[in-house]
C-alpha cells in the first residue's frame, strides 16, 4: 500500500512580526535594546516571524493549542471530522510539560467522541519528520485509513527577556566569524512559533495535487559526535551532559539549566559536512542524482548556511542549482520541527508544484546531530 500527503494546513499565531517589532514581544534584556540583534538578523536573513505572544509578552496560544488549530484547519479542508482520525502523530521540541506526552495533550484539546492512536516525538528539528514517517508507515501497513502528522513549536517560551543575559563578549567577533553568534543571543533572534499538520492517506486526491512519499530516511551521528544544542542540562568539560534530574534544585536557576543553549563552534565544524556525507549515501542507495531533483527544500536555521551548503554540494560533486531551491525561512522564521512542514504547506498552495516533479527535503538537527531526508513525487 502507498502513502500520500493529500492535505496540509498551518496555524501561525497573531500577526507577522517584523525585525523592528521583535523586542516589543520578547522584551529587552535589562531594559536595553540588544546590541547583537542587528548583526544577527543581517546574517540569518529572517524578515518576519510569528510569536504566540502579544506586545506585552503575554502568551496568547500554547503549543498544544496551536497544534490543535492546525489539525482543525486541516480537517476542515479535507471534509474529515475529528472522530475520523485513525492516527495522530505529533512532534515538537517545545512540549508544555514533561508528561503527559505532547501528543495526548493535543488529542485532548481536539476532543471528539472516539479514541484514536496517538504517538509523540520529542527532541529537536527532526521531531516533525519523525511523526510523518510514523504516519506514513501506519498507512502503508494498512493499519490506518488516514494519519495526521503534526509539528508545532512555541520557541518563544525560551526567548523572552527574563531568561537572557547580555552576551557582549562575542560582539566584536560577529562581523568576521558570525558562526560564533550561535549561542543564546543568536537563537533568540531566529526562533519562532507555529504549527503545521499534514494528512497522510493511501490514495492521492482525485481533484488536487498530492505528494507521494517515496521514502524517508533518518539517521543519528550521536555515536560519533557530542551534544551541540540542549536544554534541561549542563554540558561538562568532557562534552558529556548532566541532566536536570541529577542537579540540585538550587542550580536549576543559578546555572540556567533550563535555558536553550548551543555549542556554536561544534555546529559550524560539523552540521554541513555530516549532512553532505549522508546525502551521498542516500543518493547511492536510492539511485538519484541532482538532475532527478526538481525542488530542494532544506530546513535552514539561518540563511547563513545556504552558501555553506551550496559550497559543500559543489565540493561533493552533487550540485543543486539555486533556482531549484525553495526556502521560506525569511518569511516564517525558524520553527524548528515545523519548518519542513511549513515549506511543504506553502508549496502545495502557491502553484509552484507540477505533477511528476520530485521534491528532496533535508532536515538537519543539531541537538546531537541527526539528519533526515525525504523524497516526494508530486502526483
What can you tell me about this protein's structure?
With 379 residues, the chain is α+β, with helices and mostly antiparallel strands. The protein folds into two domains: 1-228 and 264-379, Thiolase/Chalcone synthase (Peroxisomal Thiolase, Chain A, domain 1, 3-Layer(aba) Sandwich), CATH 3.40.47.10; 230-261, no CATH class. It is 31% helix and 21% strand. The protein has twelve helices and 15 strands. The chain has helices spanning 22-26, 37-44, 63-78, 102-110, 127-141, 156-159, 184-188, 249-254, 264-286, 304-315, 329-332, 339-349; strands spanning 4-11, 17-18, 48-49, 87-91, 117-121, 147-154, 193-201, 211-220, 229-230, 233-235, 241-243, 261-262, 295-298, 358-365, 370-378. A nine-stranded mixed β-sheet has the order 5-4-6-7-1-8-15-14-13, sandwiched between helices. Strands 2-3 form a two-stranded antiparallel sheet. Helix 3 (63-78) crosses helix 4 (102-110). The longest helix has 23 residues, at 264-286. The protein is globular, with a radius of gyration of 20 Å. Residues 166-172 and 177-182 have low confidence and may be disordered.
- The order of strands across the largest sheet is 5-4-6-7-1-8-15-14-13
Helix content: 25-40%
Roughly what fraction of the amino acids lie in strands? 15-25%
| Termini separation | 16 Å
| Elements, N to C (H/E) | EEHHEHEHEHEHHEEEEEHEHEHHHEE
Largest sheet: 9 strands, mixed
Number of helices: 12
Give start-end ranges of low-pLDDT stretches.
Answer: 166-172, 177-182
- Can you say what the CATH homologous superfamily of the largest domain is? Thiolase/Chalcone synthase
Rg, please? Answer: 20 Å
| Helix-strand category | alpha+beta
Counted up, domains total 2
Amino acid at each position: 500500500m502507498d502513502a500520500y500527503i493529500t492535505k496540509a494546513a498551518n496555524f501561525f499565531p497573531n500577526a507577522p512580526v517584523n525585525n523592528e517589532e521583535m523586542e516589543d514581544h520578547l522584551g529587552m534584556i535589562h531594559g536595553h535594546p540588544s546590541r547583537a540583534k542587528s548583526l544577527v538578523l543581517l546574517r540569518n536573513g529572517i524578515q518576519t516571524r510569528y510569536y504566540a505572544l502579544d506586545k506585552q509578552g503575554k502568551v496568547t496560544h500554547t503549543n498544544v493549542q496551536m497544534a490543535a488549530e492546525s489539525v482543525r484547519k486541516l480537517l476542515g479542508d479535507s471534509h474529515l471530522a475529528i472522530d475520523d482520525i485513525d492516527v495522530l502523530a505529533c512532534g515538537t521540541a517545545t512540549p508544555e510539560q514533561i508528561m503527559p506526552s505532547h501528543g495526548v495533550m493535543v488529542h485532548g484539546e481536539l476532543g471528539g467522541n472516539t479514541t484514536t492512536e496517538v504517538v509523540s516525538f520529542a527532541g529537536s528539528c527532526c521531531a516533525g519528520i519523525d511523526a510523518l514517517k510514523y504516519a506514513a508507515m501506519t498507512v502503508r501497513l494498512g493499519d490506518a485509513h488516514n494519519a495526521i502528522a503534526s509539528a508545532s513549536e512555541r520557541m518563544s517560551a525560551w526567548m523572552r527577556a527574563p531568561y537572557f543575559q547580555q552576551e557582549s563578549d562575542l560582539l566584536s567577533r560577529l562581523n568576521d566569524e558570525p558562526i560564533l553568534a550561535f549561542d543564546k543571543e543568536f537563537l533568540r533572534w531566529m526562533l519562532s512559533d507555529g504549527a503545521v499538520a499534514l494528512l497522510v492517506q493511501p490514495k492521492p486526491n482525485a481533484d488536487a495535487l498530492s505528494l507521494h512519499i517515496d521514502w524517508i530516511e533518518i539517521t543519528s551521528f550521536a555515536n560519533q559526535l557530542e551534544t551541540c544544542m540542549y536544554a534541561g542540562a549542563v554540558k561538562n568539560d568532557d562534552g558529556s551532559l548532566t541532566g536536570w534530574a541529577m542537579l540540585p534544585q538550587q542550580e536549576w536557576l543559578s546555572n540556567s539549566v533550563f535555558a536553550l543553549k548551543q555549542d556554536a563552534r561544534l555546529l559550524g565544524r560539523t552540521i554541513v559536512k555530516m549532512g553532505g556525507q549522508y546525502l551521498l549515501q542516500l543518493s547511492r542507495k536510492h539511485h538519484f542524482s541532482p538532475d532527478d531533483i526538481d525542488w530542494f527544500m532544506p530546513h535552514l536555521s539561518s540563511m547563513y548556511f545556504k552558501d555553506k551548503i551550496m559550497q559543500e554540494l559543489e565540493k561533493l560533486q552533487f550540485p543543486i542549482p539555486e533556482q531549484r531551491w525553495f526556502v521560506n525561512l525569511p518569511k516564517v522564521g525558524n520553527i524548528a520541527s515545523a519548518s519542513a512542514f511549513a515549506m511543504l504547506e506553502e508549496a502545495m498552495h502557491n502553484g509552484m508544484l507540477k505533477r511528476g516533479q520530485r521534491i528532496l527535503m533535508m532536515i538537519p538537527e543539531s541537538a546531537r546531530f541527526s539528519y533526515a531526508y525525504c523524497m516526494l513525487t508530486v502526483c
